[in-house]
Amino acid sequence: MSREPIRTDGAPTNPHYAQAVRTAGLIFVSGQGPFDPTTGAIIGATIQEQVRECLTNIRAILEAAGSSIDKIVSSTFILGDPADFAGLNEEWDRWFSASPPARQGAKLPLDMPGLRVSIAAIAEA
After folding, report:
1. What's the CATH code of the domain at 117?
2. Non-local CB neighbours of 69 within 8 Å, separated by 6+ positions
3. Rounded mean pLDDT of 55-71?
4. Are 73 and 102 in contact (CB under 8 A)?
5. Residue 18 and residue 92: Cα distance in Å, rounded?
């Protein structure tokens, strides 16, 4: 089975891992924080703003892979503070109101000041 790394300038990059990998008819998007693709700065102070930026980055990666955010079948989010869960859902519902993907979440200590959330996704290619 072949694996194809996906890369776009429309989302933040990291030399230690691929933004996404296409294999077996799926695209596995690495966890995306709310980072500006050009500056690397955190975008947004609220959980809603940060979720929006994470999903914007995921959308850019999926489009670079020839897919779309509508083809996400599963997602994982990591919150730094469980109190942000309602705000995460508020923004999530704006993106996935008709047919939301399967989802799981976790609370982990995010050790970057100002970082509230990270989101990974699996989508159909």
Report:
1. 3.30.1330.40
2. 55, 58, 59, 62, 95, 123
3. 98
4. yes
5. 24
Q: Let me know: does 73 contact 22? Beta carbons within 8 Å.
A: no
Q: Which residue has the tokens 């891992």?
A: 17
User: 83: domain range?
Assistant: 4-124
Amino acid at 115: L
How many CA atoms within 13 Å lie on the side-chain side of 97? 4
Q: pLDDT tens digit string along 76-115? A: 999 999 999 999 999 999 999 989 999 999 998 888 999 9
Task: Supply the pTM of this predicted model.
Answer: 0.97
Number of domains in the chain: 1
| Helices (H), ranges, 1-125 | 47-64, 85-95
Q: Kindly state the tokens that stand for 32.
A: 């995306």
Helices and strands (H and E) in the chain: how many: 2, 6
pLDDT tens-place string over residues 9-38? 999 999 999 999 999 999 999 999 999 999
CA distances from 119 to 1, 2, 86, 93 (A): 26, 25, 15, 15
